[in-house]
């Protein structure tokens, strides 16, 4: 019962953040150049790529794990509420990075933007560490 309530709250938070982002930020894909993205807390995530919702994604081969690792680590270090000195390939989001539920949602959304993927809430809830996130993205067929 508590888990179901937590899941409902997380879905509501994600929906709220998406609504805020779509109404207050311009979404455009500009090729290889990174774009600065705003978080729901008003901070900036430097280097997060922002993709248009109208971009069509075709299935592709998985990204190399080394590339995914570098990009995930760099992205996490660029998020204002994450202590860059605590980011590692094996960091636990809750215990090591001190991320609460809202922080975790913002991180997942930044990762979705960076890699042009959608991470369903049911999957995001199963990603407690940087290593799990790296594996998820490295194995995602549409990650770019």
UniProtKB/TrEMBL annotation:
Family: Belongs to the acyl carrier protein (ACP) family.
Native source species: Davidia involucrata
Domain Carrier: 66-141
Domain of life: Eukaryota
A Pfam family assignment: PP-binding
Protein name, per record: Acyl carrier protein
Signal peptide feature range: none
Molecular function per GO: acyl binding; acyl carrier activity
InterPro entries the record matches: ACP (IPR003231), ACP-like_sf (IPR036736), PP-bd_ACP (IPR009081)
Assigned keywords, A-Z: Electron transport, Fatty acid biosynthesis, Fatty acid metabolism, Lipid biosynthesis, Lipid metabolism, Phosphopantetheine, Phosphoprotein, Respiratory chain, Transport
Keyword Cell inner membrane belongs to the record: no
Classification via Gene3D superfamilies: ACP-like
Any single Gene Ontology cellular-component annotation: mitochondrion
Pathway this chain belongs to: Lipid metabolism; fatty acid biosynthesis
Record function comment: Carrier of the growing fatty acid chain in fatty acid biosynthesis. May be involved in the synthesis of short and medium chain fatty acids. Accessory and non-catalytic subunit of the mitochondrial membrane respiratory chain NADH dehydrogenase (Complex I), which functions in the transfer of electrons from NADH to the respiratory chain.
Entries under HAMAP family matching the protein: Acyl_carrier (MF_01217)
Quaternary context: Complex I is composed of at least 49 different subunits.
SUPFAM superfamilies per UniProt: ACP-like (SSF47336)
């Amino acid at each position: 019962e508590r888990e179901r309530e937590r899941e409902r709250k997380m879905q509501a938070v994600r929906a709220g953040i998406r609504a805020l982002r779509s109404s207050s930020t311009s979404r455009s894909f500009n090729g290889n150049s990174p774009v600065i993205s705003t978080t729901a807390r008003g901070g900036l995530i430097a280097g997060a790529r922002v993709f248009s919702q109208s971009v069509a994604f075709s299935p592709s081969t998985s990204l190399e794990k080394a590339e995914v690792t570098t990009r995930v680590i760099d992205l996490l270090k660029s998020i204002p509420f994450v202590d860059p000195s605590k980011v590692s390939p094996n960091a636990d989001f809750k215990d090591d990075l001190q991320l609460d539920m809202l922080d975790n949602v913002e991180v997942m959304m930044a990762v979705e933007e960076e890699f042009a993927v959608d991470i369903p809430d049911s999957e995001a809830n199963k990603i407690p560490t940087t290593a799990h996130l790296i594996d998820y993205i490295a194995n995602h067929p549409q990650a770019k």
